[in-house]
Design brief:
The protein has about 475 residues and is α+β, with helices and mostly antiparallel strands. It contains 14 helices and 16 strands. It has a six-stranded antiparallel beta sheet with strand order 2-1-12-11-10-9, sandwiched between helices. A four-stranded antiparallel beta sheet has the order 13-14-15-16.
Length: about 475
Amino acid sequence: MPALSLLLVSVCLSPQLPSQAEFDARLDRAFVASKVPGAGIRVAKDGRVVYEKAFGVADEVDKAPTTVNMAFEIGSLSKQFTAVAALMLVQDGKLKLDEMLGAAIPDLPTAWRSATLDQVLHHMSGVPDYEEIATYDFYNLPRQPKEIIEQAAKKEPAFKPGEKFEYSNTGYFLISMIVEKKSGMPLSRFMQNRMFDKLGMKSTYTYPKPSQVKTMTGYHSRSGTRTKQPAIAWTSTLGAGGIVSTLDDLMRWDEALYTEKLLKKDLLAKIWTPTKFNDGTVNTYGYGWFSTTFRGQKELNHSGQTNGFTCIYRRYPDQHASVWAFCNTYDGNVFGMARAALIRYVPGLNYAALPIPANQDGEQTKKHFDLVRKACSGESTDAMGPNIKDFATNARFADVRKELLGYLNASNDLKFLRTTTRTTASGAQVQDNLYHQTIPNGVKYWTVGFSGGLMSGLLIEDE
């Protein structure tokens, strides 16, 4: 259940904030364009809901409408709960993060055993991902731990512990097993007793499903026809991706992370703290969280995906703000809708408020947009990184390239706004250059990213 990475995102906002009715209508149109059965969005600021809306149907047979309080599979958002469970045992004195996997679970492949629990939580253990090998359908049936280990062992580790970042659901399954062993109880009971009950998360569960909880039906369209999916089997994933929750409960979780209800402050901070690879470069993935920036603000984020659901959770601690979005289909994309709501309802994230610097570097602007134009024209050059080369040459991006080229041809009024830097989970430094473009019917904002001297990212947004 890896986090999703999008090269291009379009957000429909006008230069002036639209009225509530206009904004709701825009999101309604965006929802129709997304072609997902049902979806929900919530934005919270300072512990209060500032925007929420549900869309579509929770089940395509009975046409039950989606509501904002319906439960959905949160997929890899489960990892942050598992990480906190492990840290609770550290706080209890029952677990040490520098302990090796082989000491905690003796019956493991030899190549896995030297990874520390800290490296596993940071996705730098080298333990292969069983989901990549067995595919999502593996989650449809109950499994024994031995089956998960056997699946992952079909592939040799690609690197030694600590050398690289490589997302591994297997790693978090193993952490789940260790929590069970060290606590003396099933992970489901540990989470219920130590987290869900304590925080009043009454609609969050692992298994079995509580009778009072209303859940959505998940769908998958890999066959070309949207097909109902079975509920995820808890024992096939445990804390790697098996939790079901609601927006209300995730908001309770979010608020608890500003307090010491679950962990002492210093220990809790480890879930967001970057670490270093063996060569000294930075891995920005904490324990169940990616750490990055969004529009100059610190962002903590993760996505989740199962055979029938997709969701996103983005947190802005300096703003005390968060946004969530979910839909009841595999690989559904409602993230742009969530982004639009976030920008509208959280002050400080709107580009329209940024001043245009008086001293413009025309040569830099020309250099950057010569590359943008080449990429949008289907031309690959040595000044482009792999992602941009793929965007420039892959047929699946042809329509997007055509659309962006149309914006470039509409106006040469490009103004540099600012440069911000960020570090990816793999330790790469990225310089994001933001530009303002006035076109006949509005404004576009272009972000042109560079890493290692190569163009590595391209983002266009309305505001």
